[in-house]
Structure formats: C-alpha cells, structure tokens
Amino acid sequence: QQFDSALYFLNKATLIDSLNFEVNHFYGMFYCYADNTRYIDSKKAIAYLETSLKIYPDGIESLQYSGILYFQQGDDEKSKKTFLRLYKLQPNNYQANKYLGLICQAKQDYKQAKLYYENAVSLNSEDDQVHRGLCYTLSMLKEYKLALLHALKAVKLNGGEANNHFHLAQIYILVGDKSKAQKSYRTAIEI
Predict the structure, then answer these.
(1) Which of 43, 69, 92, 185 is most buried, taking the most CB atoms under 10 A from its CB?
(2) CA angle 5, 9, 11 (to 5 degrees)
(3) Quick one: which H or E segment has residue 181?
(4) Is the distance from CB of 137 to CB of 114 less than 8 angstroms?
(5) What is the DSSP letter of 18?
(6) Pair 135, 146: CB distance under 8 Å
C-alpha cells in the first residue's frame, strides 16, 4: 500500500511539473529499487533517470543509478560513458570507480582497471567483488603476490561466494602453491 501511495503522489507531481528534475529522478529511483518487485521496471527507471539528466546533467545519483542499470542490462558503452561523467564530477565516487574497473577489466584494459579498482578499494575496502576484480586484474598484469592479497581479502569478506574461492585457487596455482589451490577449488565446488 505504501508503494501505491508513493506512485499516486509521483503521478500527481508529474501532472504539476513533468519537467522537474526531482520528480523524474524519484520516479526513476522508484522503478529502480522499489522493495515490492511488482513495481520494478528498469526500462521506466532508465527513461525517468535519462529525463532527469537532460534537465540537470550533473545529477550525481541519477548518473550513478542509470550507470548501474545500463551495466546490469549489458550496455557497457552507455554505462562507461555515464560513469565517466560521474567520475569527472566526483573522482572519489565509489560506484564510478567500481563499475569503471569492471568495465575496463571486461575490455581487457587491465592498467586502467587497476587504477579504478585501487581507487574503489581505498574508498570502500569491504566489497569482495572489487577485491576479486582487482585480484583478477593484477593476475593479468602478472602481479601475483598483490593479487593473492586481494583474493584472500575477498574470501575473508565473503567466504560463501564460490567465485572468491575459485579466484584464490587460480592465484595459488600462479604462485606455485598447489595444495592450497586444490583446497580452494574444493571449497568453490562445495559451495
């Protein structure tokens, strides 16, 4: 019922001023992250967030959430473009650094991915996905000892994630510790 009320008031606000930044931003947020899945609609969320950014191009949250939605939909180009805009406005924005790291890693631009991931870790060292991404990126740059530290940190932060154990096993192989690699592979399989 709270969601119905929120939607009712957003509809009223749109009737009053459909070109208002806040109205479009909050509509986008509503369709993006409503607790009730019946309201989640990423296409509507993106449309409203894009409208809010036409009204106010420097809307930090609108940039952040539209970038995440583009990423989740597999549109790396739009996501990268959006996060680069956000990064230019706020170089210390955690989400911009995290997602730019993920995108650069996927594009095999490991030097740039390393820079973004290191920034993200310095801003929030409690995200196992960032440590796992940095681990992989460092391994591609043949920085195995540093990669091992981030693989261990990812497992420490989220030992229930099979991918963390899998990456740790791969790094153990690269540093020559086959017994620990086997143990990590077994753990990944058991999860």
Answers:
(1) 69
(2) 115
(3) helix 178-190
(4) yes
(5) T
(6) no
User: What is the per-residue pLDDT across 80-119, written as a single tens digit (0 to 9) for each?
Assistant: 999 999 999 999 999 999 999 999 999 999 999 999 999 9
The Cα 96–Cα 90 span in angstroms is 8
- Classify each residue of 128-158 as buried b or exposed e, where b means 16 or more C-beta atoms within 10 Å of its C-beta: bbbbbbbbbbbbeeebbeebbebbbbbbebb
Residue 41 C-beta-side C-alpha neighbours within 13 Å: 10
- The rounded distance, in Å, linking the Cα atoms of 65 and 190 is 34
Token readout for 151 is 């693989």
| Alpha helix stretches (DSSP H) within 17-108 | 21-33, 42-55, 60-72, 76-89, 94-106
Q: Using one digit for the tens of pLDDT, what is the confidence trace for 65-85?
A: 999 999 999 999 999 999 999
161 to each of 19, 117, 123, 164, 168, how far by Cα in Å? 43, 19, 22, 6, 11
**Selection from 120, 119, 175, 128 nearest residue 151 by Cα:** 128
CB count within 10 Å of CB 68 equals 21
Q: Tell me if residue 107 falls in helix, strand or coil.
A: coil
DSSP per position, 108-128: T-HHHHHHHHHHHHHH-TT-H
Q: Are the CB atoms for 184 and 168 separated by under 8 Å?
A: yes
